[in-house]
Amino acid sequence: TTAFWTNLVAAYGVQLVYTNTLARTPHHTEFQRTYAGDMEFRKGYWKHVKERFFYVEELMMRDGLTDVISMEYDILVYGKFSDLLVKLLKAPSAGLRMVMDLETRGHPGFLYVRSAADIGGFNNFLCASAASGLEDMQSLAMYSQLFESQVRFFPVIPAARNTGPRRSLVGHVTANPTFLSQDYEHFGNLFVG
């Protein structure tokens, strides 16, 4: 490993997990076999952004993990995860919880996963739709619509501000944006910009 990774481990107690140390699930193997998306862009970028969900499941299974937060590398957290966990456990139950900004886009940048079985359900969906061409964000949004009881959303605005269709600065319109303030009473302002 490079000095950067060595320092990261030493300074912050980060435990590096290499994907080749994880036992591949059957649906991960099937996803790899049947994926039909763009493999030219950034050496298979669209495949890899979906494949991360399989690695989360495999790590959770291997280490017996529950109540996992999966974060992208460019997300900064200013607060204690223990405080967030208390809120998550008191809020309405959800196998997955994410941020959504449109009916067609769920954001994997900050994703709560209750159990390996919960992310496994999503991964089975990814496997079944491997030839669809859906991107990771579209896949999360579609899964949340097809399996409503399995998914809830982190609030991004208070319910009082969430009054009808919303238009983004780039022109996207959200017709029924209830997901923008779902469970606000349990979380408050998690995402302050």
Question: Which parts are unreliable, with pLDDT below 50 for 5 consecutive residues or more?
Answer: none
Could you estimate the helical fraction of the residues in percent?
A: 25-40%
Helix/strand class = alpha+beta
Give, in spatial order, the strands making up the sheet with the most strands: 1-3-2-4
CA radius of gyration = 17 Å
Coarse morphology: globular
Number of helices: 7
Order of helices and strands: HHHEHEEHHEEEH
Query: What percent strand?
Result: 5-15%
Task: Report the sheet with the most strands, covering strand number, pairing sense and barrel closure.
Answer: 4 strands, mixed
Give the tally of β-strands.
6
Intertermini distance:
35 Å
Mean pLDDT: 89
Describe this structure as you would to a colleague.
This protein is an alpha+beta fold. The protein is built from seven helices and six strands, in the order αααβαββααβββα. It has helices at residues 3-12, 26-34, 45-63, 81-90, 116-128, 136-146, 184-187; strands at residues 68-71, 96-102, 105-113, 151-153, 166-167, 173-174. A four-stranded mixed β-sheet has the order 1-3-2-4, covered by helices on one side. The protein has a two-stranded antiparallel sheet with strand order 5-6. The longest helix is centred in the first third of the chain and has 19 residues, at 45-63. The model has no long low-confidence stretch (mean pLDDT 89).
